[in-house]
Design a protein that fits this description.
Layout: E1 3-8, E2 26-27, E3 30-31, H1 32-43, E4 47-52, H2 57-63, E5 69-72, H3 77-87, E6 94-99, H4 107-118, E7 123-129, E8 134-137, E9 143-147, E10 153-155, E11 159-162, H5 163-172, H6 182-188, E12 194-197, H7 208-219
Parallel strand pairs: 1-4, 1-6, 4-5, 7-12
Antiparallel strand pairs: 2-3, 6-11, 7-10, 7-11, 8-9
The chain binds cytidine-5'-monophosphate.
């Protein structure tokens, strides 16, 4: 089995409020995207493609090892992953799609995803339980229902796929349909998605508080 990693790093990161794309924001002196690439390679991925904002290609090239391929992303995450898939070299039979916004994902998570793929799963996601009470609210902000949390999971990345399965699922996804992760794309094509244990350290950096927490984690 050979695996290519696609790092989605073409987002603007508006919610972080930084002066540059989120993936280039430093954490302990290294851009978030560099952490994400290192995690994939340490965890057992053979090659990496990073999907970048077209206007920032030079900055990403300067921040990453030369062996990493760069490809221009699109306006949405779905478009960016499509571009990454199209640019991946022909050798790999499995694909791991990872968010640059999850810099401190332990390589063990990558290893678990790869092991489940090797055991025959066509699609694999790392997940964590939901610990808060979870409710439905109406437009006025009034709680209308409570959702039983026991069967709920929070889904992280990297998500792993049999390559032909992921390519076919993206090809079948109608233009204009935007989904927030890749497991949703394969589920839309009727493919079962297997869960492995995620890790709290793989938390996504979205708002400034997340970056603060990540900084504390690195210093430990
Ligand atoms: O916006 P969000 O935090 O959900 O983005 C998840 C990941 O998808 C980020 O790493 C971001 O860089 C990436 N992304 C992308 N292309 C876009 C939007 C987001 O690669 N157009």
């Amino acid at each position: 089995m050979s695996a290519v990693g696609i790092v989605a790093a073409a987002g603007s990161g508006l919610r972080l409020g930084a002066d540059r794309p989120k993936a280039l924001v430093p954490l302990a002196g290294r851009p978030l995207v560099a952490w994400a690439v290192e995690t994939l390679l340490t965890g057992g991925v053979d090659e990496v493609v990073v999907v970048v904002p077209p206007a920032e290609r030079a900055a990403f090239a300067a921040a990453l090892p030369g062996a990493v391929a760069l490809v221009d992303g699109g306006d949405t995450r779905t478009a960016s992953v499509r571009a990454g898939l199209a640019a991946a070299g022909p050798g790999a039979d499995t694909v791991l799609v990872h968010d640059a916004a999850r810099p401190l994902t332990p390589p063990d998570v990558v290893t678990r995803v790869l092991a489940a793929l090797a055991a025959g799963a066509p699609a694999v996601v790392p997940v964590l339980p939901v610990v808060d009470t979870t409710v439905v609210v109406d437009e006025a902000g009034t709680v209308t229902d409570a959702v039983p949390r026991a069967p709920l999971r929070r889904v992280q990345t990297p998500q792993g796929f049999d390559r032909a399965t992921l390519v076919a699922a993206y090809a079948a996804l109608p233009d204009g349909v935007e989904l927030t992760d890749d497991a949703a794309v394969v589920r839309a094509a009727g493919i079962p998605v297997t869960c492995v244990d995620g890790d709290e350290r793989a938390a996504k950096v979205t708002i400034p508080h997340d970056l603060h927490l990540a900084g504390l984690q690195v210093r430990r």
